[in-house]
Amino acid sequence: MEDLEKEIAKIKARNRRVEADKAWEVSWTRKILVLTLTYLVISIFFLFAKIEQPFINSIVPALAFVLSTLSLSVFKKVWIKLKR
Q1: pLDDT in the model for residue 13
Q2: Which of 43, 50, 67, 69 is most open to solvent, judged by the fewest CB atoms within 10 Å of its CB?
Q3: Could you give the CA distance from residue 31 to residue 21 in angstroms, rounded to a whole number?
């Protein structure tokens, strides 16, 4: 009986971790962080590449990357439906 209680505790702990991961994946904090970090990396690259107006020109690729990652959940749902 004690082994069963330990297994149940492990399953509950795993479920909490999975729920936290799911919450992070759909959170606005993650989306804004991805956008910000992508923008900064592209801006730095554009600065070193001596591209004109690197901070303005970095907006489009950063937004495109974030939009592509946001749309993946839509495609994932479609894919899951097709696999059933």
Answers
A1: 93
A2: 50
A3: 14
